[in-house]
Amino acid sequence: MWRMATEKCRSKEVFVKHDNITDIYTYMRAHASLLGARILQEYPALHQFDDAVSPRIEGLLRTPFPAQTIAIMGVAKRWQRARTSMVVAECGTGKTLISLGAIHVHSRGIPFTALAMVPPHLVEKWAREAFLTLPGLRVFLIDDLRNGGDENKSHGVNEVRLRQGRIVREGYTQP
Prior knowledge:
- This protein has about 180 residues and is an alpha+beta fold.
- The protein is built from six helices and three strands.
- The termini are far apart.
């Protein structure tokens, strides 16, 4: 992959010594500024630091950091132009908060239904963060619908609540 990218760079009179590039990591380090400039050229920011922020941000139960607020507004603005958006960032940057905040801002105060497709190991964490971020929220989890459902586990569509920091499935008691 890095050789192909190097060839594309050559067409713009950017030359790379192949013997200095040993893997994707050294390629990325060597060309970080060029790649960053290209990303900003191809995907300009939809929201800048000095742009007005939606007053709905203040309605969140958790306060996002300034960079998260910019990302929230960028996603909300993207949804005004298109049906999809992506939040791509490293672990711990607040992707869940950004996603939830963007839903909140985009709703403009109108009641809404949102569907979050979450990896199985993050479902309860995501639900907990949703309760801690969005006011007046109801959360439903779709549990164990494969192979007719395990009778020893909750299955189907189940409303959950946040109790003492834990996600609890309503109307279901574990055997």
